[in-house]
Amino acid sequence: MSLPLINPSAQPTHYTGVAMVLHWLMALAILGLFGFGIYMTDLPFSPTRLKFYNWHKWAGISILLLSVLRLIWRITHRPPPLPAAISKAMPGWQLGAYHATHHLMYLLFFAVPLLGWTYSSAAGFAVVWFGHIALPDLVSVDKALADLTKPLHKLSALALVGLAVLHLAAVLKHLWIDRDSLLQRMLPGHH
Amino acid sequence: MNNTRRLVTLSTALLVSLALPCAAQQKLLPAQSALTFTAKQMGVPINGRFKKFDAQVSFDAAKLASSKVAFIVDMGSASIGIPEMDIELPKAIWFNVAKFPQASFVSSSFKSLGSGHYEVSGLLSIKGQAQHVTAPLTMTHDGTSTVVNGVLLIKRLVFKIGDGDWADTSMIANDVQVTFKLSLSGIDKPKAESGQPESIH
């Protein structure tokens, strides 16, 4: 028997199932696509390279859509607040870093794929999702803009992965040093 | 193989030279003309154009049977506008410009479909491969020049364009659309669309 059902005014202690699915799916997709992106840019000009670039774009657009869903879900389903014991024990800078990391990650969920899409449009390659759904070009062909957005796409992706590593480091700190149950909020199972 | 290619080149040259004498008055206006192509790479349209091409034209709407066009395209002038792809186009796997610097189309017949619409048939030769093709075209006259618009659908693999690893049509579709807009000077506007012979000049 779970308490929140009896007492609706009580704060949730776990993320919703949808939030968990979106979190873990995007974590896997973003880390996977980052590695794939680094790998494919080193390939010589070949059918494989072009194929991988297309797959990367399809996956990037999928992540962008998941990001939209996730933002909508986040706004309509407030996440569980930090347990009082944990937020009280946290120094102010840690609490600030906790909020900043999450806000920046949400910003980058959109910025990284949008920069990639902008680069693709500026370079003259339309994005055709899964080879069938032609997406509009975000900008017209513009070499200068392509040269600008290409490194920005990479840097923003690096920043996103860097924040994910920081996020993971914080999780491990709570798990191994503080030995609290913070990670349980994002894991399915006993509520 | 080599002989076939030589034959194609020779016959093209012959036909071009045959078309020449009667084409003295009719000229292609390159600045107002365009030759473009669209290929699809995993659904993504790739648009390119040829910057250099020329035509010998001898066209008379009233004398279609003796009308003739010989078209030459400088394959080395192809550009997609994406530098990393443009450097690939002249290579052997694509256009093989070193061996086959020109592509040609030599008409064999014209057919009137009425009100400025025609159908042209002829031999298209690209990269040493020749194929008989037919393309619809529309002619419009505006004062001094005549504009010919048309679309030709070809299969790239017939001409071995994108050989080897690139032959996979799930990567690059076999269908390529070639679009041309040719501005010509010196073509008389037909006096009537009925196709009746005009009076002798």
Overall average residue pLDDT of chain B: 86
- Please, what is the oligomeric state? heterodimer
Q: What helical percentage do the residues of chain B reach? A: 10-25%
Main β sheet profile of chain A = 2 strands, antiparallel
Give a verbal description of the structure.
The complex is a heterodimer of chains A (191) and B (201). Chain A has 191 residues and is an all-alpha fold. Chain A has a single domain (11-186), classed as Fumarate Reductase Cytochrome B subunit (Up-down Bundle), CATH 1.20.950. Chain A contains six helices and two strands; from the N terminus they run H-H-H-H-H-E-E-H. In chain A, helix 2 packs antiparallel against helix 3. The model of chain A is unreliable at 1-6 (pLDDT under 50). Chain B is mainly β and 201 residues long. Chain B contains two helices and eleven strands. In chain B, 28% of the residues are buried. In chain B, strands 1, 2, 3, 4, 5, 6, 7, 8, 9, 10 and 11 form an eleven-stranded antiparallel β-sheet that branches. The termini of chain B are far apart. Chain B has one domain (2-185): Lipocalin, CATH 2.40.128. Classes of the chains: A mainly alpha (191), B mainly beta (201). The interface between A and B is medium-sized, with 16 and 16 residues.
Keywords:
heterodimer; A: 191 residues; mainly alpha; Fumarate Reductase Cytochrome B subunit; two-stranded antiparallel ribbon; 6 helices; 2 strands; 68% helix; disordered N terminus; B: 201 residues; mainly beta; Lipocalin; 11-stranded antiparallel sheet; 2 helices; 11 strands; elongated; disordered C terminus
How are the SSEs placed, and which strands pair?
The complex is a heterodimer of chains A (191) and B (201).
Chain A: H1 3-6, H2 17-40, H3 47-76, H4 84-89, H5 92-122, E1 128-129, E2 133-134, H6 143-177
Antiparallel strand pairs in A: 1-2
Chain B: H1 2-19, E1 27-28, E2 34-41, E3 44-50, E4 53-58, E5 68-74, E6 78-79, H2 83-86, E7 102-114, E8 117-126, E9 129-142, E10 145-155, E11 175-185
Antiparallel strand pairs in B: 1-11, 2-3, 2-11, 3-6, 4-5, 5-7, 7-8, 8-9, 9-10, 10-11
